[in-house]
Amino acid sequence: MLTKAPAISGDAANFEDVRAARAPVPTIDVRDVSLEYGAVGQRAAHRILDRISLQAEAGSFHCIIGPSGCGKSTLLSILAGYVRPTTGEAKMGGEPITAPAPNRVMVFQNPTLFPWFTVRQNIAFGLTLKAHKGKVDDVQQTVDRLQDLVGLAGFENHYPHELSGGMRQRAEIARALAVDPEVLLMDEPFGALDALTRITMQQEMLRIWEETRKTILFVTHDIAEAVFLADRVVVMSQRPATIKKVVTIDVKRPRRRDAPRIAHLSSTVADLLDLTI
Amino acid sequence: MRRLRQLMSPIAILLIWEACSRWGLVDRLLLPPPSQIFIDIGQLLVSGELLQALWASSRRILIGFSIAVVFSVPIGALMARSSLIEDLLHPLVELIRPISPLAIYPLALLWFGLGDGSKIFLIALSCSFPIVLNTYAGVKSIDVALVRASMSLGATPVEIFRRIILPGSLPHIFTGVRIAWGIALIVIIATEMVGAIAGIGHMILDAQQTFEVARVYSGIFVIGALGFLTDFGFRALRRRIMPWYKELSS
């Protein structure tokens, strides 16, 4: 999949060409999305996002990186359906995104596990909702499988406050996977973890992704994380955010963090962010 | 060990009191020794007077308190979820809340008579405020991220209310209910001192007027024990229905 033609285009002009060249509809398709805050009539509306275009095909892993406060989380909120763009359109599977839907699930930086449910009840939460009733034959079995997948076996009866940060993030990911979404929208999911746990979780994330083949859009402000994880790194600018460049990480997995190519791509991304490493 | 240490100060006070009273350091008539008070409580138990008084008071508390819970929780929740209802009710609540319920009692006597009605009304009214305000605060305090996460997983508004908002505000609601219970124990005694023919408050006032001082203390001890035991019950109940409570309190 890494050798395919670029799936993301920040360039509206050849958008149609790219689209025509590939038959299947991209899973995530963002076209010219701008977002402004501020009521009508107000003199200076706040422009958060400025004509963002981005496509992600099924099963791809994209990391979105940019200066803090640039609007990358806002972009994810639009994809989740919490926020509507001022202009432009965000589509999933060809359908406009208008509201939250369980085929694209958010995973947040601070785990949003429900404190009143055990790990097991949290993971099963989605499947017990009306929207997913009868989706799986055996909820318990599905939960067991997910607990194993994210490495939480043996913790099923713990409450969230009894877990470490990494464990909570694992449970959060399992809860999202339970409803079998096509897309995982991850908003700095490892941002609150300590450095060692973060590295472990990055490896775990790749393993889970390789097993489930979800389409992942992963917001981060960590260059090393982005380059280690992603097929493509989407580099965003300061506010109002535009897409500066999409960097394809043409390194086969499993990747070594100290590989020269990784180092080179990391400095490419850093340069785009006007940083030196 | 901790338990034993915690019992030390009450026991010490009772012993010193007993000694002072017996050796005539204080007026025995005004401060009878605790042993005499406990004997009096025993007699009240045997004669059935205590249970009768307790039942009369508890019944009024339970009815008034239940009315307050049933109405206040939904009102508090609605206030937190709808800005219209919030704007309509919040000023009203803040205006009425500082008025001592006892100031309203003479009116309650006019409206509901000398019987149970006036007492129940006053308890329901004074219990309402802490429950409304704590429920309101509880629902307001729910992390938007939890609601968003549940929406993302496909929860409907009803499911969000039932499975996120209700359990999420339960610790606050519970606190409000506990405070209300404490207020109910205070208010009941005061109301029973006017126009009641039964109840702990009535028993205390009656004893004072016939100068059975030990009995006055008996009533006070019983109220203390009742408050202590019921709060203990509340805490046990909290552990049972909210085993996850620790996280929200820390």
The H-level CATH homologous superfamily of one domain in chain B, spelled out, is MetI-like
| Averaged pLDDT of chain B | 92
Percent of residues in β-strands of chain B: under 5%
- The end-to-end span of chain A amounts to 29 Å
Oligomer: heterodimer
What's the β-strand tally of chain B? 0
Largest sheet, strands/sense/barrel of chain B: none
CATH architecture of one domain in chain B: Orthogonal Bundle
The structure class of chain A reads alpha/beta
Strand proportion of chain A, as a percent range, falls in 15-25%
Largest sheet of chain A: 6 strands, mixed
Give the largest interface pair and sizes: A-B, 27 and 25 residues
First-last Cα distance of chain B: 25 Å
List low-pLDDT spans of chain B: none
Backbone shape of chain B:
globular
Keywords:
heterodimer, A: 277 residues, alpha/beta, 4-stranded antiparallel sheet, 8 helices, disordered N terminus, B: 250 residues, MetI-like fold
Overview of this protein structure:
The complex is a heterodimer of chains A (277) and B (250). In chain A, strands 6-7-8-3-9-10 form a six-stranded mixed beta sheet, sandwiched between helices. A four-stranded antiparallel beta sheet of chain A has the order 2-1-4-5, with helices on one face. Chain A has a domain at 1-97 and 232-277. Chain A is 31% helix and 22% strand. In chain A, a hairpin with a 2-residue loop joins strand 4 (87-92) and strand 5 (95-96). With 277 residues, chain A is of the alpha/beta class. Chain A has helices spanning 15-21, 72-80, 119-124, 139-150, 165-178, 195-212, 223-229, 260-272, and strands at 28-37, 46-56, 61-65, 87-92, 95-96, 104-107, 183-187, 215-220, 232-236, 243-248. Residues 1-10 of chain A have low confidence and may be disordered. Chain A contains eight helices and ten strands. Chain B has a domain at 57-196: MetI-like (MetI-like fold, Orthogonal Bundle). Chain B is mainly alpha-helical. The longest helix of chain B is centred in the C-terminal third of the chain and has 36 residues, at 157-192. The A-B interface holds A 80, 82, 100-102, 104-106, 108, 110, 112, 114-117, 125-126, 129-132, 159-161, 175-176, 179 and B 143, 145-146, 148-156, 159, 163-164, 167-168, 170, 242-244, 246-248, 250.
